[in-house]
Amino acid sequence: MEKLAPILQTIVVAKNRRSSLEFDEPSRSSDFCSGTGICRFNPYIERRSRTVWTCWYLRGYYIGKSLVQRKYYGSVASGLQKNPTFATLNLDDVNYFKGILGEKNVIQDEDRLATANVDWMHKYKGSSKLLLRPTCTEEVSQILKYCNSRRLAVVPQGGNTGLVGGSVPVFDEVIVNLGSMDKIISFDKVSGILVCEAGSILENLDAFLANEGFIMPLDLGAKGSCHIGGNVSTNAGGLRMIRYGSLHGNVLGLEAVLANGTVLDMLGTLRKDNTGYDLKQLFIGSEGSLGIITKVSILTPSRLFSTNLAFLACNDFFSCQKLLLEAKRKLGEVLSAFEFLDSQSMEMVLAHLDGTRNPLPSSLYHFYVLIETTGSDPSYDREKLEAFLLQSMEGGLICDGAVAQDTNQSSSFWHIREGLPEALSKAGTVYKYDLSLPVEKMYGLVEEMRLRLGQSAKVVGYGHLGDGNLHLNISTPEYDDSVLRKIEPFVYEWTSKHKGSISAEHGLGLMKANEIHYSKSPETVQLMASIKKLLDPNCILNPYKVLPQSVLH
Amino acid sequence: MEKLAPILQTIVVAKNRRSSLEFDEPSRSSDFCSGTGICRFNPYIERRSRTVWTCWYLRGYYIGKSLVQRKYYGSVASGLQKNPTFATLNLDDVNYFKGILGEKNVIQDEDRLATANVDWMHKYKGSSKLLLRPTCTEEVSQILKYCNSRRLAVVPQGGNTGLVGGSVPVFDEVIVNLGSMDKIISFDKVSGILVCEAGSILENLDAFLANEGFIMPLDLGAKGSCHIGGNVSTNAGGLRMIRYGSLHGNVLGLEAVLANGTVLDMLGTLRKDNTGYDLKQLFIGSEGSLGIITKVSILTPSRLFSTNLAFLACNDFFSCQKLLLEAKRKLGEVLSAFEFLDSQSMEMVLAHLDGTRNPLPSSLYHFYVLIETTGSDPSYDREKLEAFLLQSMEGGLICDGAVAQDTNQSSSFWHIREGLPEALSKAGTVYKYDLSLPVEKMYGLVEEMRLRLGQSAKVVGYGHLGDGNLHLNISTPEYDDSVLRKIEPFVYEWTSKHKGSISAEHGLGLMKANEIHYSKSPETVQLMASIKKLLDPNCILNPYKVLPQSVLH
């Protein structure tokens, strides 16, 4: 108690406490003059072989590039062949699309196609010859109706920030990018219900809502580029989930276009509506393979301005779990984040991330926990957190801790957790896994992996403990096939054995389409395939993704 | 400010502030010695013609009955004929079921069938000759596999507390009651994830969780009888929705049996799982027409013990809306209920509900609002509410108000809101509508209905303002066809025109299956029908409900 008490001081409300770069997910938007709104750069990461270049753009103009060490490895669906039932694009097709969309929205320019063909990590690359940019639902409908009749395969694309190869072509699929459909249609201040087009950028929506006193119920690192349609299609989780829940609860309505061009109006703006099957739910998380989402209706919470952050140390993982339980009880309604990292994570950050300082320098503890609260009253909320921390210290759950005293300290605490992926990428090769596991079993995988790999690799565990989401990262100086073979399929088998999910929030995409059986039973996969064939009989929408080809053909 | 300030006094934590009878929905369980747990009666309401008898049971034994005035009228699907493709039950069928379930779980007793054939309101009555009580998933699977092969229609039944005729047979369907499947399978205290069988009674689950420091994320009047499987199948809303959101967000996993006997294991226990389509969502709210839910995994929040309640008066509906907006902003994380009633509602309660006292007797105001907060710290939460109320009074949003000072006062405030259906039923005939509407438009319907009906009826409006859920009730001394013709289809057309839902939380069942087009587009209804036919090609599951017969055959 003595140790913690002196540092329980006034905490400044940290409105923008997180940097706009969230490294668990990609971001192309980084504001280098934070708060000024003047200089907005768009770094774009380009990768050739195993060398990764960050290309910097200012207001769309290329201004230079810098070398960064980013290497990602993991299972990739391989040995795929183009579906022989798909047609190949011809001049008549292009002219037809020009007739619908006009010349400027039918893009064949090689440079622009090169960008759209490659994912953010440069791990997946397609060879599409055509990018279409519809401006309204009717155009999306006409595009799909035509593609379906011609059996032209289609990839719906939003901000192209996905991590599993879901948003880029595999072969020569036509890319349909929703970026021109970014209008806010309505906002009801009493209910907090926002209706907008699917191409709206998440950060723009959040900025619009800020003026109205509301926030988006989700937040993720890619917010400067990702589209709300893509968020919904991938059932994005992100940082606010522990507080506001999943998109399955927050999305109130959708408009989606089926493969045959049928427009499904499910765009309800009601919190309660029990009239028939809740079809919109099928489109949430189906990664664009059942239809293209064109409009979204979403419930947004009121924006609360009082935020507090504590950086704490625990002796063991059991204490972290118990602390989570107590935080849910005692902080209840104000708890907004509960993140953990292990000592290996801390070492990694201190060694490889410039300007990082250990907030608890007296010792290297086994585990660290970040607890954030967000509420409507700064003084009440602070007192509540302080009382909780004192009690937890007395009870022996935490052995050291610091509470952020101002925005800078808050940012530096978050920087440790959020800078981890960057630190890992600087340390060498990273084998990355985004897993969901029962909280009590979560750290067992990290420990088993350490035993399995011995001295050949560093195993690092951190993640959203409050959501049961583990980011398992394995670091080696160089890429090594034998290390990968020791990790996979073991990591998937272990996760499956403990009833976990091999994809907590990133989706399956191309990367894990064939691994779905680790998390889903044969009967459910079979039903998914039946629903896919019902909604998209020619399987033109986002082919080769989500489901194994074997269950579709 | 002067008016409110003197009554802002200490509020006792009202742990059980609501009576177990919630009159918007049926309840068969009423604890007459509240808190003692000794005398638990199970009133069962029986209706013949237009006279309603409440039959009282003590621990299952009939102990007497009393006359109550309950009359419900509304649209009922009529002119239905039994689907000619369905078979009629024979002795071989019964013997087959006895072979699977044993004699005692194959029920042909007339008295027991009579109960199971009739809904809670005695508005819908079937003529089933067989009630089956499976004890495990495998038995449910064998029952359905057999029924499907024989084309015997099936009604899944939980607590049979539905209000739209969804849980009883229409003709001679076989009733499959899940009441014997009521085991708690697991509970994870760290994550708050509960897994149980579908026949578990909501109140029992809540009692189990109370010992663990958690609560169910839903609460409704029928909790003493309703099953969690039925709650999920009907996507029950209830009292805690404004705080904890819908079941689409809180249900983490399901096990369900399809019409052909296939067991779908979707029983995840993870907050995050993005591996393929979220099939379980299809079963939430599909009213047992796509499969029988046999197990449920649900996220439960920590139980918070500090509850405050204010009863307030507003001059107009616009002030109610603005107060809601402010409450969401200022009370934010502790707001747990926001209910409203109009002056006609108050008059109705004062005139017909014994022992009711107006908490604000100095005047009859146009609108009344109940605001409840639930948090983790009694003194902080109380101060927060008081500060908010003073500010709202100064700002002119509320013109009078009282804060409950103890459990009794809290109960008496809630009694006004919760006693409304009872008061209405005592006043004469009630035409009841459960609608979802954009908050700003909600009261317009009440006013238009008043103009439309003139002196022929009393129009009363109240409901869950925080969820946009209006309970529109029209009261006349006697039932009158001409009044009904003035109400319907006008009420549905008005709701449809303003993008509302004709069923906020009760579902469509038999009552509104043919009215689905008022809330859903033809394309979505068509897709619902396709999904129904995909999952249940012989349409044996809960026939005649949810969807119009015309789209299925």
Overall description:
Chains A, B: It comes from Stephania yunnanensis. Chains A, B: One of its GO terms (molecular function) is FAD binding. Chains A, B: It catalyses: (R)-2-hydroxyglutarate + A = 2-oxoglutarate + AH2. 2 copies of one chain form a homodimer. Chain A has an 8-stranded mixed sheet with strand order 5-19-21-20-16-17-15-18, sandwiched between helices. Chain A has a 5-stranded antiparallel sheet with strand order 10-11-14-12-13. The first copy, chain A, has helices at about 90-100, 110-115, 135-150, 200-210, 230-235, 240-245, 245-250, 280-285, 315-330, 345-350, 380-395, 405-420, 420-425, 440-455, 480-485, 490-495, 520-535; strands spanning about 30, 40-50, 50-60, 60-70, 70-75, 105, 130, 155, 175, 185-190, 195, 250-255, 265, 290-300, 305-315, 335-340, 365-375, 400-405, 430-435, 460-465, 470-475. Chain A is built from 17 helices and 21 strands. The first copy, chain A, is an alpha+beta fold. At the A-B interface, α7, β13, α9, α11 and α17 of A face α7, β13, α9, α11 and α17 of B.
